[in-house]
């Protein structure tokens, strides 16, 4: 089954910049794919189209939704390079906000926020404030906030690019473990060839702007 598909998708911005496409891409449920390409080739644009934060200029974008509760973001979890946490409120409040906005009761939202925080290794930091956390920890909070609504697809836009190598490597390993445990579809945008090959089952290499698919490579992993 498909989690998302783009067919003949192009995106021209109002200023006339042709940012993307035509792009044809089908992502299967549960797949972890990386989009790899030069700066400005339209990777973020592609993610915004999949998240329906922006409409294509032509072509169609389809995203499969699961049955059941409808939450803001429509089954999409988005993680950006900048964690964009609200500084004046606790880590727990930051993580439970998407649930509160969706009308989930306080106590349930709190329990689910704490569960999401535990899943990223931050069970002990629920009452901390964002400024007390390291860059890697803020990214973990951002990931917990994206996962708390149990999205069908996790979109990650160069999430670890600003972090030091060691933190980045740890987060790569933790993200892989989470992906194996949760079975979510992940679309991961990166500049790093290493990261794309290390993390994903499939690396989609894009051309310079307007981004089209140059190569679509299956990565064979050998489980220990
Ligand atoms: P990438 O994520 O691969 O770096 P982007 O999707 O951010 O690429 O951008 C693709 C191209 O579209 C770039 O040339 C960028 O400057 C341009 N662009 C992105 N967003 C906008 C916008 N809102 N208005 C005009 N041009 C934009
Ligand atoms: P990460 O845990 O994402 O790898 P860092 O590498 O930046 O993050 O931090 C290394 C470890 O140091 C963290 O896992 C955490 O246990 C600890 N740490 C970092 N900042 C703090 C802090 N403000 N308070 C307590 N422990 C911290």
Assembly state (oligomeric): single chain
What's the average pLDDT? 93
Given the C-alpha coordinates, what overall shape results?
globular
Number of helices: 6
Which molecules other than protein and nucleic acid are bound? adenosine-5'-diphosphate
Q: Report the structural category.
A: alpha/beta
Biggest sheet details = 6 strands, mixed
- Assign a percent range to the helix content: 25-40%
How widely separated are the two ends? 27 Å
Polypeptide structure, described:
The structure is a single chain. The protein has 224 residues and is of the alpha/beta class. It is 32% helix and 26% strand. The chain is built from six helices and nine strands; from the N terminus they run βββαββαααβαβαββ. It has helices at residues 43-50, 91-101, 106-119, 135-147, 165-182, 193-199, and strands at 2-12, 18-28, 32-36, 58-63, 76-79, 153-157, 185-190, 202-206, 213-218. The strands form two sheets. It has a six-stranded mixed sheet, with helices on both faces. Strands 2-1-4 form a three-stranded antiparallel sheet, with helices on one face. Strand 1 (2-12) and strand 2 form a beta hairpin. The protein is globular. The two termini are 27 Å apart. 42% of the residues are buried. The chain binds adenosine-5'-diphosphate (ADP) (2 copies). One of its GO terms (molecular function) is ATP hydrolysis activity. Involved in beta-(1-->2)glucan export. Transmembrane domains (TMD) form a pore in the inner membrane and the ATP-binding domain (NBD) is responsible for energy generation. Keywords: ATP-binding, Nucleotide-binding, Transport. Residues 4-224 form the ABC transporter domain. This is Nitrate/sulfonate/bicarbonate ABC transporter ATP-binding protein.
């Amino acid at each position: 089954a498909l989690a998302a598909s783009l067919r003949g998708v192009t995106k021209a911005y109002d200023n006339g910049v042709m940012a993307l496409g035509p792009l044809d891409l089908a992502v299967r449920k549960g797949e972890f794919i990386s989009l790899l390409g030069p700066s400005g080739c339209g990777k973020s644009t592609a993610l915004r189209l999949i998240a329906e934060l922006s409409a294509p200029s032509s072509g169609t974008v389809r995203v499969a939704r699961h049955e059941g509760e409808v939450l803001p973001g429509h089954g999409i979890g988005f993680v950006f390079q900048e964690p964009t946490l609200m500084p004046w409120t606790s880590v727990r409040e930051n993580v439970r906000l998407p649930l509160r906005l969706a009308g989930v009761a306080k106590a349930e939202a709190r329990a689910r926020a704490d569960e999401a925080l535990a899943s990223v290794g931050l069970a002990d930091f629920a009452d901390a404030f964002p400024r007390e956390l390291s860059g890697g920890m803020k990214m973990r909070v951002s990931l917990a906030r994206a996962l708390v609504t149990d999205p069908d697809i996790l979109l990650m836009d160069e999430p670890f690019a600003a972090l030091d190598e060691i933190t980045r490597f740890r987060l790569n390993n933790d993200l892989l473990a989470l992906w194996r445990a949760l079975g979510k579809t992940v679309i991961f945008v990166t500049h790093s060839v290493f990261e794309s090959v290390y993390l994903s089952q499939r690396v989609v290499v894009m051309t310079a702007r307007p981004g089209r698919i140059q190569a679509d490579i299956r990565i064979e992993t050998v489980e220990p």
